[in-house]
Design brief:
34 strands, globular, eight-stranded mixed beta sheet, five-stranded mixed beta sheet, DNA ligase i, domain 1, D-amino Acid Aminotransferase, Chain A, domain 1, 12% strand, 40 helices, alpha+beta
Amino acid sequence: MTEQTKLSVLCSLFTWTQRSKSAAKKRAKFRKFLDAFCTDHNFFPAVRLLLPNLDRERGSYGLKESVLATSLIDALGISRDSPDALRLLNWRKGGAATGPTAGNFALVASEVLQRRQGTASGGLTIRELNELLDRLASAENRAEKILVLSTLIQKTNAQEMKWIIMIILKDLKLGISEKSIFHEFHPDAEDLFNVTCDLKLVCEKLRDRNQRHKRQDIEVGKAVRPQLAKRVANATEAWKKGDPLAPLLFNIVVEGLTGLMRTAISKNMFSSYQVGSQKEDVNILQYADDTLFFGAVTTDNVRVLKSILRCFEMVSGLKINYAKSHCGCIGKSEGWCRDAAQFLNYSQLDIPFSYLGIPVGTSSKSWSVWQPIIRKFEAKLAKWKQRCLSMGGRITLINSGLTALPIYLLSFFRIPKKVVHKIVSIQRNFLWGGGIEANKIPWVNWDTVCLPKNKGGLGIKDLIKFNEALLGKWGWELVNNQNQLWARILLSKYGGWNALLFGRNSGDLSHWWKDLETVFQQQDSNSINNNLRWKVGNGVKIRFWKDKWRDDDLTLQDKYPTLYQMSTQQNSPINLMGHFVEDRWDWKINWRRNFFDHQIDMVAAFMAEIDDVHIHRSSMDILTWRDDPSGSYSTKSVYNLLKDAGNIVTEDSASKIIWNLKIPPRAIAFSWRLFQNRLPTKANLRRRMSAMSCSLAPKLGVYDHCLCNFLFCISVHLLHGKDVVVECKFDGDRIQIHKNGTEIHFFSRQVRMNFIDHSEYAHAMSEIIIQNVLVDRCILDGEMLVWDTSLKPKAARDGLDSDRQERHEILCKIVRPVKGRLEILVPNAGINSHISSGEPCWSFIAHNVDEVERFFKETIENRDEGIVLKDHSSKWEPSDRSGKWLKLKPEYIQAGSDLDVLIIGGYYGSGRRGGEVAQFLVGLAERPSPNTHPKQFISFCRVGTGLSDDELDAVVTKLKPYFRKYEYPKKRPPSFYQVTNHSKERPDVWVDSPEKSIILSITSDIRTIESEVFSAPYSLRFPRIDRVRYDKAWYECLDVQSFIELVHSSNGTTQRDTEYGSKQDSKPKRSKSSTRGEKKNLSIVPSHLIQTDVSSIKGGSLIFSNMMFCILKNLVSYYLIKLSDEVFEEMSNAREVLLAKANSPFNYMKAGS
């Protein structure tokens, strides 16, 4: 029985799932739990605890971390000044008070409870837990909640209480998605939940996993997950990927090109290129959207090819991209090749060239072939050089990244030794803590480093052995795929498998084939050949004497050398060593002479051994690989064989134990060096150098990390016959309105995990919906907006301050009648038919990219959230993000310039960043006097994203000695920081002195916002860190006056002009391509913050002469503009002041009507 299952069992499942790193094992464990403990098919009591965020049967607990902390303190009956109470209240903050669990409230609470609860389980069942949680959710006051928490504490232990707290917070952190849980529960569970949002209904309807459920349609009145828009920067590319039929249709059409070539060849109109001694015909190859033609170098072939391409264009409607097409000729003059290319409208192909990353027409020994690999290594290391990687991190990076870089090229060519030495040098220097060229002490021999982990090494790939293992697969594929075109070409030109094993490196062979012969012939007598076995079919491919096709490890030549010398068929395949007599195979072996009497027994044993073999007329011979269970060639197994060949190193039990320990990689790396006695102890250092000096420390270099800022590119057209609708994306709350006659329901996505029907909206909105939505049953999916009655645009969501009656009157004025169907609701007479004069166009069908770009610019200037592009013919699907809807928002577009700001405070993180500063409060400087440093810094914004973990750790480590905890309200902020002390601004720690701080270069959404939380007049939307400016001094940060000048001088954008850029940033200017258009200046300042344009106003008198006016920004915009105009009429040299210091020498009075 599910409800009688002990809570301890469920907690064990949670603990095991959280610790397991295998997603497959997690899913299997969940399935096993359901099969073992839910035998009555009553899944809901357990599943609602596994997915607490989807359980709508139980209301909101009203307990987030801060409230839950105080409730637990009262439930435990401890003083709020006690150490444990302070740990709960300050659970985010690290240090000795909170310990290593800081940032994870459930773990902090578990440690506090562990000292007050027993270790034994209280025997609480799933049913009892659900009843207590129901009481907790329905509790009407805080006292009732504390009573329920006290009961839970009495009936559980600390481990169980930890998971109960995580259920209350609705975040189990199991590392398994709800999609995976739904799939293991039932294949149709996710689809059913998407259209019902009812977890209980899903558990009741899908009791039998093996019985499929008929797809359920959307029901009006039941919450449904909304369709979602996919983020894009290029709509055309998104549509290409989003159309599943596009690749198939393209392949079908392009097949016509092959048909035209086939017809031309059958009528002797086109001469194919013939390869090798067997004259293998090659005429056309196709890969993806590339087509390669091969033919004899004749004028007739060029003319026929031109006709084929022209005919294909006319019939298919596809166009050949002649700008990317090339024509190359071998054996003809330069003039003939140029004329042929010009006739085909191609460009002339230069030899050598590269195709699919493989150089063609050049020697694989050339340094130019391998130089891109070296550059990739160096570029990869350049990104990691300044990051604080432990040795364990460097080992992981080498194994996962650096070794994987050259695999593609290593699969084709034999790597030269000079390239191996260069790559190994880079790997070795990086492993031991140096850079690309910086040499460090190689504490362990590289051959030992490349050994497997169980033999005392680090498991780093030996490039030479790995290269040979990769090349060995060519021979394997050549034998098993002889009927394919590429294999027939190699057989015709080089001779195939036998040539690999016994061929001679003659001068007329290609470098590529010579390398393959070298690899196979040097390994023929050992590793590779010893693990090949033939499975006999018709005997065509197998050499009777020289191949291994018996059960033992010897060929017949090695086992019976005397008989081999007497045979006249030493190189013959099995099928020529006999014949079929009806259905029985009869051996016919030819000998040079008769046998002596003492050889008769040997011949008899030989014949008895081969008589056991069955030859099959219709089966093919199969080459198998002995060291792989599947019998197929495995690069991994061949590499291990090559490493073991001639290597007498046995398994190291100590290394095997070390690598199996459940400890961090850095600790494993330290243990490995410890067992190798290769730690930098004084004795080891003394043996390796004569003197010890500071030169052992790594040299820190300064690297400019260039990031490209891309402007958006939206291109929309009827690529697949689709009408593309472009709509304004409003900045509101997603809401669904379900209308079923006169019954109205409201479901907000803001609480999508609970799917509560917001009945409080009914009074103001239900009657409006009934009167204006003319269909009886429908679902309206849209945004709930705040409306500004004075300016008529949408206002910010936090600007809602009118009473319900006023909101009701607004709805009556702005709602328009609509008719339509369930999937798409459109106006009665067209999409924009109800737009009144002066109202903006919110939706239209785009005909070209210019319309989309212009509309996007308008939405930004109107302070809207962005735009949405929709396939007008697509069906509305719940929870779908497949690309049918595409969204483009300003924060997806790189801002025009980076801003250099100073770190003045920090905020503790949660989760894996718990107990450490994870976000920063940054500030702008107050412009100092000439030849002085800034003395005041103004809070600007809060930023935490953009840095890797290692980069963030480096910044925090550097600043940690200068962090001072902010104990509000006991202590005041440092005097040199100008802040608002707003609750959202207030940091956990201050940097005690600006001189000790670090400059960050940040970027953001292209729009700024009026600052209410921070002291600066403007702040940024979605700021993120671009890089850490270690190369700049603390006083070189941006000052607030320059920032305002920057914003206003560029019409509200953050694009720096030449003069300003030269003052603020020492980075070299990026070259601008002449083909790029002008940068678009999109307004990023609210319209009511931009200085009033008074250029058209004529002065009336001089009564306000020589006066300064500060027009306050909290006036309604209409009155602000009117007041500015009236003041300017009566003034000659007054000016509008947007930023006023607290100690400015003027007084003002506020007047208004």
